[in-house]
Amino acid sequence: MDTGLLIALLNPTIALALGAAFLVLWSYQRHRPYLAVLALSYSLSAVGFLLQYFTLPIGMPLTKLVSNICFSIAGCCLAGAIVHRYGRKVPYVGIGALACGGLASFCWFLFIAPDLTWRILAMNFAFGGISLLVAAELRPVRNSGPTEKILFVLSLLSGVNFFVRTLVVVIAHGPFTSYDGFYGSSYWTTALLSHALLSLLIALCLFSAAALDVLKALKTETFTDPLSGLLNRRGFEERGMLLLRHCASARFPVALVLADLDHFKALNDVHGHGAGDRVIADFAAKLRSAAGARGVAGRIGGEEFAVLLPLSDLAAARLFAEAVRTVYSAGHVDGLPQGTKVTASFGVAARSGDEALEPLMRRADDALYKAKKNGRDSVRLSYERPETAFLPEPLKTG
């Protein structure tokens, strides 16, 4: 087998392997459609490269057209999948305009004014434009993580490759008048090798991103309560300790609100566990809405909830608890009989000094106990300061 054929089969083999790998990933993660789009992109790229060497019965010109259509669709799919993966709005119009413009120019220089060099320039400039468009979309998120930064750089390099490499090789070794000897030219060799390298690097980066997605999902499942959608106790304690450290370093006040649903066991016994689940979900939704993105909310027990409020003192936390208590006691939970009132009791404590999460929760729990003992559906505050960890002995005289 000659070297030219080996190089020719390099890109289709790599592309098919990557397409199959993305397809397998998608089969396990159907909720991430960009993986299926990536599988389609790499598969079409493989077909495009194969059709550069093997002519269909429709003849060489039409075979070249089909090949470049495959390349164009593959490029559009790859660009769209990358942009979608990172939460950006896919610029369908821009991508489509560049791809269609490149294909239209290719057809002109294939059928109307045949010129191989201009066909090369038309398609490479179109792909270069798509690459730079992807880089522009990734620019706002390039510092969000390692994969974002790497893909941003790779998109820029891909754009430079399509523009600069193509121009340099065409100027140095062109123009190309026919396909005779074309596949042994410096242009085609550099195109194949650069495409193989960039394809592998982009695919490895996207594989890493997919793996990070899985790890993030597993971590979310580990630290999230499935019924309420809030953090579970483990997740709340981890996020809470992190928040307390940040607030301590910035000298921001923090307050903790504990909430407990009143007579929850009796509600379960009378209306069933399904009704109890709806009550928990409803209260969690109201608590999450009130806490917003700034607060750390969790379900730390069966019917017990906690919210850490940064930038809040005791008075602000009390207003928060009273607002949630009032809204919840005045509302109605779907699925419960009309007139069924569900209330909650609250204990509030403000952090003192560098107080750790455990003593802060203990003080808020004592306040919550008083609220439950004194009639429920109320808010009680903890005015106690944490115990001093160390008190120096008085100086002895005499």
UniProtKB/TrEMBL annotation:
Enzyme Commission designation: 2.7.7.65
Top EC category: transferase
Family matches, as CDD domains: GGDEF (cd01949)
Source organism superkingdom: Bacteria
Start and end residues of each GGDEF domain: 252-384
The protein, known as: diguanylate cyclase
One MF annotation (Gene Ontology) recorded for this entry: diguanylate cyclase activity
Gene Ontology terms: biological process: cell adhesion involved in single-species biofilm formation; negative regulation of bacterial-type flagellum-dependent cell motility
Gene Ontology cellular component terms for the protein in this record: plasma membrane
Organism, scientific name: Mesorhizobium ciceri
Regions that span the bilayer: 6-26, 33-53, 65-83, 90-112, 118-138, 150-172, 192-212
